[in-house]
TrEMBL record, chain A:
Domain of life of the native organism: Bacteria
Topological category with respect to the lipid bilayer: Multi-pass membrane protein
Keyword vocabulary terms for this entry: Cell membrane, Membrane, Transmembrane, Transmembrane helix
Transmembrane segments: 6-21, 28-47, 67-91
Taxonomic classification: Bacteria, Pseudomonadati, Pseudomonadota, Gammaproteobacteria, Pseudomonadales
Protein family according to the UniProt entry: Belongs to the CPA3 antiporters (TC 2.A.63) subunit C family.
UniProt xrefs under InterPro entries: CPA3_antiporter_subunitC, NUOK/Mnh_C1-like
Protein's recorded name: Na+/H+ antiporter subunit C
Pfam families reported for this sequence: Oxidored_q2 (PF00420)
Signal peptide: none
Organism expressing this protein natively: Marinobacter halophilus
Location (main, coarse): membrane
Compartments reported by the entry: Cell membrane
From TrEMBL, chain B:
GO cellular component: plasma membrane
Transmembrane regions listed in the UniProt entry: 6-21, 33-50, 70-95, 107-124, 130-148, 160-181, 208-229, 241-265, 277-297, 304-322, 328-351, 372-391, 411-432, 453-473
Family: Belongs to the CPA3 antiporters (TC 2.A.63) subunit D family.
Membrane topology: Multi-pass membrane protein
Main location: membrane
Annotated compartments: Cell membrane; Membrane
PANTHER family named in the record: NA(+)_H(+) ANTIPORTER SUBUNIT D1 (PTHR42703:SF1), NADH DEHYDROGENASE (PTHR42703)
Any single GO BP term: ATP synthesis coupled electron transport
Top-level taxonomy: Bacteria, Pseudomonadati, Pseudomonadota, Gammaproteobacteria, Pseudomonadales
Protein name: Monovalent cation/H+ antiporter subunit D
Amino acid sequence: MELMISVALGILTTCGVFLILRARTFSVVLGLTLLSHAVNLFLFSMGRLTTGAPAIVGLTPDSADPLPQALVLTAIVISFAMTAFVVVLSLKAAVELRSDHVDGENPNEDRP
Amino acid sequence: MTHLMILPVVIPMLAAAWLLLNHRASIGRQRVWSILSTSLLVALGVWAVTAAQADYHTYWLGNWQPPFGIVLVLDRLSAMMLLLAALLALFCVLYASRGSDREGSHFHALFQFQLMGINGAFLTGDLFNLFVFFEILLLASYALLLHGGGRARSRAGLHYVIINLLGSALFLLALGILYGLTGTLNMADLAVRIAAANPDDQTLLKGAALLLMVVFGIKAAILPLLFWLPRAYSAASAPVAALFAIMTKVGFYAMVRVLLIVFGLDSAQPLNADVFLWLWPLALVTLGLGAIGILGAASLRTMAAYMVILSSGLLMASFAMAEATVLAASLFYLLHSTCLAAVFFLLADLIGRQRAEGYDLLSVTAPLTNRWLLGTLFLVAAASMAGLPPFSGFISKAWLLQNAVSHPKYLWLWGITLVAGLFMIAALSRAGSGWFWKPEPYTGRQRRRLDPARVATVSVLIGISAALALFAAPVMDYMSATAGQLYQPSAYVEAVLGESAMANGGHNP
Amino acid sequence: MVATLAPLAGLLLLARHWPQLAADDPLIATVQWIPQLGLDLSFRLDGLSWLFATLITGIGCLIILYARYYFEGKASAPRFFILIQLFMTAMLGIVLSENLLFMLVFWEMTSLVSFLLIGFNWSNRGARRGARLSLVITGGGGLALLAGILLLGNMAGSFQLTEILAQSDTLTNHRLYPLMLSLVLLGAFTKSAQAPFHLWLPHAMAAPTPVSAYLHSATMVKAGLFLMARLHPALGDTELWFALITVTGMITLMVGAFVAMFMHDIKGLLAYSTISHLGLITLLIGMGSEMAMAAALFHLVCHALFKAPLFMMAGYVDQATGSRDMQLINGLWRWMPALMLVTIVPAAAMAGLPLMSGYLSKKMLFSESLLVTAPHWANVVIPVWVTVAGLFSVAYSVRIFHNVFFNGKPRDLPIWPPKKKPAMALMPLLVLAGLSLLVGLMPQAIYDHLVHYAVMATTASHLPLYDFSALADAHTPAMMSLLAMLAGLAVYAARKPLFAIHARLPDVDAKDIFETVMQRTIRFSQTLVYQLENGSLQRYLALILLTTVALVAWSLTGLEQWRGPVPLSDLDPLVVFGISILCLSAVGVVLFHRYRLPALLLLSVTGLFVTLIFAWFSAPDLALTQLSVEVMAVVIMMLALSFLPQTSPRESRLPRVLRDLFVAVAAGSGVAAFTYAVLTRPSNSISDFFLTNSVPGGGGSNVVNVILVDFRGFDTLGEITVLGIAAVAVFAFTRNLNLKHRVAESGHSHWVAEPHPVFLQVVAHMALPIALLVSAYIFLRGHNMPGGGFIAGLVTAVALTLQYMAGGLAWAHERMRTQFRSLIGAGLLMALLTGMASWVFGYPFLTSTFAHLDWPLIGEFELASALMFDLGVYTTVVGATLLILANLGKLMTIAGPGKEIG
């Protein structure tokens, strides 16, 4: 199981990183989202993987590690805020820079 | 446990939330709230510096004892950073209140959020909480960078945001590794557990340390992670760029804190040694690049951005020497370089507004008004930046070089620093002579009035740099004690976790 | 006039201290400034500093007097007087400092003031360039000196001269002595215009003449000599000292004397002559014997006394005729007889004619040159060398006098006839010429009473007085003098052909070289910086990722075992299936990333399976959150996609793709490796504390929720702040976004603005109350069961969004009058005030309290203060999400920026 999760996280990261390195803002946003999935799952798995034992007192005798879950929840919210921000920003950039390339139509036009 | 400790986070947040709630308030009202809040922060900064001289102060949020709850820790370093940030912010908000805050929406609310993030990052003793505050300050900085709009800002902003999102992902990865292997997030507790980890785990933890170095290195501007910086800083509006002068220092702060406390407890074989091994050459090259960039800059803003890079390089290089005396000197240099970088961003705007054309471009020769006043301000700032006496630049550089002598590799630092100084003299004299000597007297019909309030803001900020030189002795004492404190991580651990923590090998529930 | 008071007062003060010079101990006064740095305000008055200070103040008085006439009727006069006083202060500081670092403060100050004074006539291009050249050279030297002095202080353990001078042996035997000496000398040489750093001095002549006379001849350029003389007792008498200083001095002496001969500009000639004399003094200091030092200081005084009046003469002529070109200025004796008479003395002294001060000092030099024996080449080379240089100095001295006042008639002078100046203007020249004469006539007295104490200070020994009568009897030096004089006259007589030859040599201007070098360096820097920082985000990201991968890989090389001791758990087929789909959809996103809509759909599949993984591995809260976030994120991205091109062009070449693939695979393997390594190691977490204390301490059985609102409520406060900032930021930067210039490739219809299917509207309207009810339920039970403010907020936001999308823009605009920004502010305030409320009870920020309540339908739940906090979270989330959506939606309207929403 651990090996499988590791490989899956590796694949998610690889896909995310590869997309981040693309030239169009939309691909980069896709990449960032994949990467944040990978990172969130990574952080989550750092509390070790437990099945059928949610961290609710009195529900099951055993319990999963609640702390990483709380951290990941925070991280999810933050990455949601960031994604929303970057999506709108890339729209704005696409309009103002006349292209949805991450560097705009001409990266040096504003260079003094 | 005094509640004053949390006010540096609460006050700006309160101000920001209040400003949002009353977002229809006139800009005048907004300014009043914003300036009021920032002034309070300055007062708090003064309190913090006084209080920190006695001992560590801790604050248990929610009254949960560390390492279980989040703890704030006020030590000498965080106190001085709080004061510095607050002072700088006060000048920036005063300058912005002369009109740049009207160029977009919600400047003051965002500005206060920014301060909240910065102050929280300085105070927190919890690594995940540090991540949260980093996100706050970053998101606020994205927004402030875009303040005023325009193509250059959009482009620089997009790059800045995406790079920092990658940085955040790396931060979380490092946090995950640390938590996975130690099961805790509190910095003091982490320190104890890392020092006690078995060698194989330590190798993995070293990987986390290097990840964190990259994360903080992106913020602190270290080669090869810094290329986003020149455009972002030169695109930002003047008061925002001036505030950003502290942002690279937040990265530096985090690096100092994490490397010295979290990874520095095991005095026999500290994990941070391997990080310093890499930091040292990278920082020296950064320093060199800063100097070259200053010489090659096309506008004063870009030049100021490279000054930020140069000072980052010098800070990191001296930090990588891993000695308390050198660190003391670099902290003093930090004060100086932050103030001066801010001065240059503001000066670029101040001068640019008085020039007939070209704003702050160095290639344009344009008549300007108030040649005398602006020229004098520029001269003093430039002399201080280039390290000419008797200003703070000279004092800080001399102290840094002097303290570095005990390190075996000091000649590298000396050589590059001094050559960088020469580059700076050449570049600044060229800029000054092209701006204040070359042009014809201003004859333009349109009257460009020099705003006395803006001038006063910049002058006082320059005055602070001069005062730093004049009253260097007490400040240096403070810095020496600060560096000494940072090289005593066990004292930090005991202050946070209690006396027995060291013996027990961390806090076991 | 007032300006002269300060130096006069200084002079008087110095005179008062004169009697104390005979005593051994220097006067020292110290005020602490920065003890950590070893930098103190510490002054020292001994023979050497007394001599220099007297020169500085004395000549300063006369220069100011002279400047009064020079600047008559000019608006720039006040600036001059301020700067010159500043300079005088700095210069006095250099010579009177006991602390070397303190001296350095003044040292750099003179460079800076000199820069301002050279650029005094700033509209002149030459002046600006000359000023920058001098600043770069002397400032650079100052940096070297800083390094040298820091090293010196480190070796000696102090920057106080008294202590340094007492440690000659320690210093000269130190491992780093060569480096330190070279750095200090670099500082001294640049300041004192020693070859090859002399280049700045001729260009400093663009300064007003009083400045040239004072700074660039009499005082500032002597600072380097002063420093060498000052440190001689501590650092001198080594082979390195001799080699470095003597050779530099010799080269400078010759270059200066030779070039001076060919200068047509009076001030240029004087500048090179100054360089040559500085070289001469340097040479003498380098020899290092006591008598050589005596000769050096004696000549230094003589030079100051004769060079200053010559400069004044040059300025006088310049102002009178409007030119300084000696090819034009000829035969002025008819018009300026008084000036001519006054000039005779200094010119003769410079040439070294008998009875003049220059004659004596030159003879001293010749006789000292004969005494050098140490390196065997020196006893032949040096005498011959100085004689040849003496020859040139005679030639140029004759030239300046003869050319200006005789040599036919003036030609084409800009101002004709010459302007008269009041007779008083000649006063300073007269005084200096008189003093110069006096030195020549009674050298013994002058030496004994003024110079001797200085020599004592520089050699740190009691030595006999210099015997001038013995000098008069020395034959070989006299012969050398005579030889130099005759040959010099011969050279002057043959000047016409020599000039012709010289004119054919390529014209080299140091300023131009400097400018070229500067331009090249700047262009190089620019190119380098442009290439590095080329505005390509892809490159920046690749660099960051590569650095990360490389550093981490390096750090993990030492790892002995990847796999830890914990046994692997069994595979569950369901998990295998889920994870496979997750991976496949992620790969699908990559494969289809150029076709955006499919890619987005695949991405939402990925998100869905992430949710399922959370649910499977006992994290219901996470699953709920991920699900609702996923919905919102996909909605936002869909909206954005409607506005962007639907496909990406194929842009990346194969090498680029391979590079990126390499980086990506490396990063992916890193994450996989870390996951595997950590998961197979035992965990030792602080979480048990939370499980134990959740109910008794936090009042809730859903530990994750209690952590969020209580144990780590501070994180949550930060988290909703982030959300709030994001929303406000989106509002702020889309407010004035002008959509008239749409992306060219877009051309896609904006489906949001189109009419909407009726059935969607109906469903949406019906769904709203249910959704609100559900979110209230989730909210309230959150503390004990999965749920909570955040998820409830998102559910509410989703429901409202659905309304928004179903009803169309106009409909939504009508109904969405809510002030979302106020909502965010209120939410944040609510959370914050809940936290602050605990202060009232004397507890830290965010301390919770709770009470149990039994509500019908929902069941028993705790009314915790955390509930208020969670309500703040809920409010902020609703406000922030809707603000983002509303503003994104606003962008979709064809009409462009409408009125503010939210």
